[in-house]
Amino acid sequence: MGKLDVMVFGLVFGCLWSLCILVLALVSKVANRGKGIIKLFAKVYVGYGATVPGSLVGAIWGFIDGTISGMLIAWAYNKIML
């Protein structure tokens, strides 16, 4: 295995996590399910909720959180595996 590009891995991870957070809120709004997980994430992502504006706010928070987390994962992988 080769070395991971920390920035690229972080950005991809951030985009994927952002999309997951967005879809979770929108599905929760439409299907009226998953309110517990929405409330849990809303404690961390200020402004997040099962609404269209809340889902967009959550997606922004998710992108930031996912990017930082992804960069840390890639950095740790590079340090441990190489």
Please summarize what this structure is.
This protein is an all-alpha fold. The protein contains 3 helices and no strands.
Give an account of the 3D structure:
The chain has helices spanning 6-31, 35-44, 52-81. By secondary structure, it is mainly α. Helix 1 packs antiparallel against helix 3 (52-81). It is elongated, with a radius of gyration of 15 Å. It starts with 5 loop residues before the first helix and ends with a helix.
SSE topology:
Layout: H1 6-31, H2 35-44, H3 52-81
Helix pairs in contact: 1-3
Per the principal axes of the C-alpha atoms, what is the gross shape? Answer: elongated
Give the overall pLDDT as a whole number: 96
Proportion of beta-strand residues: under 5%
- Oligomerization category of the chains in this entry: single chain
Helix content bin:
over 70%
Q: Please mark out the parts with pLDDT under 50 across 5 or more consecutive residues, or reply none.
A: none
The number of distinct β-strands equals 0
Major beta sheet summary:
none
Element-level helix/strand string = HHH
Termini separation: 9 Å
Structural class: mainly alpha
Number of helices: 3
Rg over CA atoms, rounded to whole Å, is 15 Å
Give the key terms:
single chain, 82 residues, mainly alpha, 3 helices, 80% helix
